[in-house]
Design a protein that fits this description.
Elements: H1 3-9, H2 12-25, H3 27-40, H4 45-49, H5 53-64, H6 70-84, H7 86-96, H8 116-129, H9 132-143, H10 151-159
Helix pairs in contact: 1-6, 2-3, 2-5, 2-6, 7-8
Length: 168
C-alpha cells in the first residue's frame, strides 16, 4: 500500500495526530509540508496557512490522498514514526531481534525474512499499546522499506481485522 492509499483509508484522527505532532514538535517540517502540498496543487502556501488549523489539517489530509502527493506523504509518515513514535519502532525491532540504534532506526540492512512467530508476537505487542490504525500504518510503511516487502507481513496486514484500514 502506497502512502496516498494509506491516507485514503486511515481515519482523519490519525492524520490529525500526525499534523498536530508536526505543528508542535517540528514546526519547520509542518511549514515544509504545507508548502510542498500547496505547490503540488499549484497553490501558494498562504492559501492554506490562512485557514483555521482544523481546515488546514482537513485540506492536508485530502491532498495527501492524491497519487501526486505519494512521496510527500511517505516522507511525512516516515518522519512521524522515526521522531514521534520511536517507542513503537523500538518495540517492533526488539520483538523481531532487528538491530537498531536505540531510537528505532535500523542498524545495517533489514533482514531478508521475518520469523513468523516473532512477527505475530511483535504485531500483538504493538496492538496492546497502540491503536490499530497507527499500527497498520506503521506496518505498511515498514513493509515498503524493501522492494517486495515481506510476504508474511503482507499476509498479516491483509488478514488481521485489527489492522484493517479501509473501514476506519
Amino acid at each position: 500500500m502506497n502512502a496516498y492509499q494509506i491516507f485514503q483509508n486511515v481515519p482523519a484522527s490519525l492524520s490529525t495526530d500526525l499534523f498536530t505532532w508536526m505543528r508542535s514538535e517540528d514546526r519547520e517540517l509542518y511549514k515544509s509540508a504545507v508548502a510542498s502540498l500547496a505547490a503540488n496543487r499549484k497553490l501558494r502556501p498562504a492559501f492554506v496557512q490562512k485557514k483555521p488549523v482544523a481546515e488546514q489539517f482537513a485540506w492536508m489530509h485530502k491532498t495527501l490522498q492524491l497519487k501526486t502527493s505519494d512521496m510527500i506523504g511517505e516522507h511525512l509518515l516516515q518522519v512521524w514514526f522515526m521522531k514521534g513514535k520511536q517507542d513503537m519502532l523500538i518495540d517492533f525491532c526488539d520483538s523481531l531481534g532487528i538491530e537498531h540504534n536505540g531510537e528505532g532506526a535500523v542498524d545495517g540492512e533489514l533482514p531478508e525474512s521475518l520469523d513468523d512467530d516473532k512477527l505475530k508476537t511483535a504485531v500483538d505487542k504493538l496492538l496492546e499499546k497502540n491503536d490499530g490504525a497507527t499500527v497498520a500504518t506503521y506496518l505498511h510503511i515498514f513493509n515498503a522499506q524493501t522492494q517486495d516487502g515481506w510476504s508474511n507481513l503482507a499476509d498479516i496486514l491483509e488478514s488481521d481485522e485489527r489492522l484493517a484500514l479501509g473501514n476506519a
